[in-house]
Design goal:
Blueprint: H1 3-8, H2 15-37, H3 42-47, H4 49-54
C-alpha cells in the first residue's frame, strides 16, 4: 500500500490483512471477555454482568 494510494482512497485490503484483523479482533474480544469475567473488583464484575449472562458466560 503506497502513500499515494492512501491519499486517493484506493487502498485494497488483502485476504491476509483481513485474516490478521479478524484474529486480532477475536483475541482482543477474548481477553476482554475472560479478563472482565474473572476480575475480582465488584465494579468491574458488575459492569459487564448482564452481558456475560446473556452470552452464556458463567461468572459465578
Amino acid at each position: 500500500m503506497t502513500t499515494e494510494a492512501l491519499k486517493q482512497g484506493t487502498a485494497r485490503v488483502t485476504r491476509r490483512d483481513a485474516t490478521v484483523a479478524a484474529f486480532l479482533a477475536l483475541f482482543l474480544g477474548s481477553v476482554l471477555t475472560f479478563g472482565v469475567g474473572m476480575a475480582a473488583p465488584d465494579a468491574v464484575h458488575n459492569a459487564a454482568h448482564d452481558w456475560r449472562h446473556s452470552m452464556g458466560f458463567p461468572c459465578h
